[in-house]
Amino acid sequence: MKIDPAAYVGAVVRQVADREYQGRPARVVIATRDYDTTIEDLWDALTSAERIPRWFLPISGDLRLGGRYQLKGNAGGEITRCEPPRLLSVTWEFGGGTTWLTVTLSDADAGVTRLELEHIAHVEGDLWDRFGPGAVGVGWDLALMGLARHLASRAAVDRSEAAAWSASEEGKDFIRRTSEEWGRASIGAGTEESAARAAAARTTAFYCGEPEPGGN
């Protein structure tokens, strides 16, 4: 599995924002990427129970508006908005907490579709200060890369190969690069630079299965 980390990292535009959501302060992580396919094909890849496991995770549930979904070994939730082929919103319920995910598709150019992923979370505890936006952002970067590879090849993910790649030096380089980019996005949103870089380093260590910098 040969991947150019810089090419995939550079294909994503990352933003971080503060917002009030449901009457409470919230953090927003936004990832935007263009794909060389039609809006209908990208929508199908994002919403088809048959295609989602080819690039992301096995999924079960009632995949319609108001239904509930469950990703194997990961989040589940409710489908709260579904406006084919342009907008999908779900609750993202994991580890006893609930956050909110919206994916919007638009026409970027002839044969090119823009995907904007927005993940909203209420500000609770010290998770944000400790890991910053990369805590979820790196995971979404990995998913967006998997989606790009599926759209290009139409092939399903080889999960054992993907796991081996993630643990390889090339995979760790991808994680480090995208974590640093989320750190830069955090700085752009007003986070003090040293705090953002420290959070990015902790995120990198977490995803790479390495000791946390400073041993904290």
Structural description of this entry:
There is one protein chain. This protein has 216 residues and is an alpha+beta fold. α7 (169-188) runs antiparallel to α8. The termini are far apart. It has helices at residues 5-10, 39-47, 52-55, 127-131, 134-153, 159-166, 169-188, 193-208, and strands at 12-21, 24-35, 59-61, 68-71, 76-83, 87-94, 97-109, 112-122. The mean pLDDT is 95. It has an eight-stranded antiparallel sheet with strand order 1-2-8-7-6-5-4-3. The chain contains eight helices and eight strands.
Shape: globular
Q: Strand order, biggest sheet? A: 1-2-8-7-6-5-4-3
Number of helices: 8
Structural class: alpha+beta
Helix content: 40-55%
Q: What is the straight-line distance between the termini?
A: 34 Å
Q: Mind describing the biggest β-sheet?
A: 8 strands, antiparallel
Number of strands: 8
Low-confidence stretches: none
Order of helices and strands: HEEHHEEEEEEHHHHH
Whole-angstrom Rg: 17 Å
Q: Overall mean pLDDT score?
A: 95
Strand content: 25-35%
Oligomer type: single chain
Q: What descriptive keywords fit this protein?
A:
globular; 216 residues; alpha+beta; 41% helix; 8 helices; single chain; eight-stranded antiparallel sheet
List the helices and strands and how they pair.
Elements: H1 5-10, E1 12-21, E2 24-35, H2 39-47, H3 52-55, E3 59-61, E4 68-71, E5 76-83, E6 87-94, E7 97-109, E8 112-122, H4 127-131, H5 134-153, H6 159-166, H7 169-188, H8 193-208
Antiparallel strand pairs: 1-2, 2-8, 3-4, 4-5, 5-6, 6-7, 7-8
Helix pairs in contact: 5-7, 7-8
